[in-house]
Amino acid sequence: MRINFTKEPNPVFECAILTFKIVNHESYKDKKSLYASKYQTDAGILDDCFTSLSNISREIAAKVRGSVKQVESLFRANSLGSCCAFYLLHGPMMNRQPDIFSAANSVKNITKAEFFMNFYQMLGMQDKKAKFARDVKNYNDLINFISAMTIPDDEKWELCRFYNNFESNKDILADYMLEIGQAFYEVYDSMESHINHYVETIEQPLAKGGVAYLNSNFGLELNDQINSVTVVPSVILGADMKYLFNYTSDTVDDVLVVGGYYEPFGRIAGDGQRLTELCGSLKALGDTSKLKILKILSTGPRFGQELAQMLGISTATVSHHVSILEEYGFIVLDRRQNRVYYSLNKDRIKELISTLDSELS
Mean pLDDT: which of 71-80, 81-90, 178-187, 271-280 is highest? Predict the structure, then answer.
């Protein structure tokens, strides 16, 4: 598998996602609050990132405010997880480094015949539960396929209307993308330093780790059927990522678009998760009886009744304590005939000490 890495955002993707956010009233302010709450992070840490995102979003929106109304219906969210405009813009968004002018022309020049199969393939990927017995080869097949999709009737109507108005939709969308693309370029300089920082962060690990790095760092499961993956940085996505599939090409060349703040947010999320787990582990040990159990087990395995007698407590209380210690990995169970023996997990104790030392040093 070949991995390509571009160092500039795809302007068509940037403008499409930003328009989607504008039309659907998605706020970077809300996103910032979500991250601050989810990862128990001081909102001040996120200020630099989200202030930049909010500023560029507002500036571009102000420049194209009159035109957004023309394309609003094409960018309205639905349960397919996308919207009609993305079916038309999919090709230019897959290109590595499209010029916004050539991208707009490519949208204008696409024929209905060219669009037909791409549209059908993408719908099929969006709704794999649709039951349709034959290949879609003509307009009637397409309408029947849309009718078979497992989506609400009003969305089926929107898809049919979008396809029937293909010629006018593509012209309106191409003109709009040219306008918002120019607005994007006018304010891009204010975000370029963030993209450069992201490129510097990911370039060497990606070159060294390849597919393994993509899979582990982005939660992917890339398989051998994929010929190549192009990794593209994004201003507008911020801390998110999108995986774009190639639907109709003989070769499988996919695109992974990654927000310029994905790496630092990943570290924030990891730090938050580690601290949560650390607090849980310390809380689990916050009882003298549990610590006494661990001390006894440090000399060798014991079964429940032995522990109860040595500690002077009931077997029910011992059972309660050891269940919590087992949950956090501090002890392991070993069934021998009719008895369950408990042993100290020394590796887990060492791990806790190492984590605590790392966090406090």
Answer: 178-187
The answer to whether the CB of 214 falls within 8 A of the CB of 80 is no
Q: Of 316, 319, 315, 322, nearest to 291 (Cα)?
A: 322
136: closest CA among 126, 148, 151?
148
Q: What distance in Å separates the CA atoms of residue 48 and residue 128, rounded to the nearest whole number? A: 41
Tens-digit pLDDT profile for residues 99-152: 888 888 888 998 988 888 888 888 887 777 777 777 788 889 888 888 888 888
Coil, strand or helix at 169:
helix
3-class secondary structure, 243: strand
The Cα–Cα gap between 72 and 320 comes to: 58
Structure confidence at residue 215 (pLDDT): 85
Helix runs in the chain, H state only: 11-23, 28-38, 43-63, 65-71, 84-94, 100-109, 112-126, 139-148, 153-164, 166-187, 189-218, 262-284, 288-297, 304-311, 315-327, 346-360
Given pLDDT bands bounded at 50, 70 and 90, which one contains residue 178? very high
pLDDT top residue among 61 and 117 = 61
* Residue 275: pLDDT over 60: no
- Quote the pTM value: 0.70
Is residue 220 a contact partner of residue 258, using CB atoms and an 8 Å limit?
A: no
Please enumerate in sequence order all residues whose Cβ is within 8 A of that of 154, keeping only pairs 6 or more positions apart, or say none.
none
Contact 226, 243 (CB under 8 A): no
Burial class (CB in 10 A: 0-12, 13-18, 19+), 70: middle
Domain ranges across the chain: 2-267, 285-360
CATH no., domain 285-360: 1.10.10.10
Per-position DSSP letters for 101-139, written without gaps between them: HHHHHHHHH--HHHHHHHHHHHHHHH-TT---SS---SH
Convert 112-125 to b/e letters by CB count within 10 Å (16 or more is b). Answer: eeebbebbbbbbee
Give Rg (Cα) of the chain. Answer: 27
